[in-house]
Amino acid sequence: MLPNSIDFVEAYLAVVRSGHIALPMDPTYKSLELDNIVDQLPPKLIITNDKYLNRFSQKHQEMAVLIKDIRNYEGSPAAAVKLPPDEQIVSLTFTSGTTGKPKAVPNTHSNHIWNI
Fold first, then answer.
1. Residue 53: per-residue pLDDT
2. Is pTM beyond 0.85 here?
3. Which residues have CB under 8 Å from 8's CB, separation 6+?
4. Where are the alpha helices (DSSP H) in the chain?
5. What DSSP state is assigned to residue 79?
6. Angstrom distance (rounded) from CA 37 to CA 87
7. Span 71-103, pLDDT tens digits
8. 77-85: Cβ within 8 A, 24+ apart
9. CA quadruple 56, 13, 81, 115: dihedral positive or negative?
10. How far apart are CA 43 and CA 49, in angstroms?
11. Coil, strand or helix at 46
12. Given pLDDT bands bounded at 50, 70 and 90, which one contains residue 5?
């Protein structure tokens, strides 16, 4: 959960490059909305900054890592998982929920290319 910034781009591309699935969360979401998303799709890691950390409940803050701490990490990077672009799920986005409850929609690299 980061604003539109170079921090978001770096974090998003790092998640995708490492073969994981990104779930971008809008910084305008309220705490209740964030808790609902995180409870439905429990992440292994939440990447955010000092400004947005307190929007998450205490139990969810425990899985958060601040973007500034990631930049200072000195360990070796994990090997990337490579799948064909039309198969690797790269991100999940939530629908608006206009016809019911919001649902998570998986997107592949190819989906993103077509959306662009």
1. 93
2. no
3. 2, 24
4. 6-17, 31-40, 50-53, 58-61, 67-71, 109-115
5. P
6. 24
7. 776 665 555 556 677 778 888 888 877 888 888
8. 77/18, 78/18, 78/19, 80/17, 80/18, 80/19, 81/18, 81/19, 82/19, 83/19, 85/109, 85/110, 85/113
9. positive
10. 16
11. strand
12. very high
19 CA to centre of own chain: 13
Of 52, 111, 51, 66, which is closest to residue 85 (Cα–Cα)?
111
Please give the structure tokens belonging to residue 40: 């439905």
State the Cα–Cα distance between residues 68 and 57, nearest whole angstrom: 21
Q: How far apart are CA 115 and CA 109, in angstroms?
A: 10
**Residues found in the chain:** 116
Residue type, 8: F
Report the alpha-carbon distance of residue 77 to residue 32 in Å, rounded: 34
Which amino acid, residue 24?
Answer: P
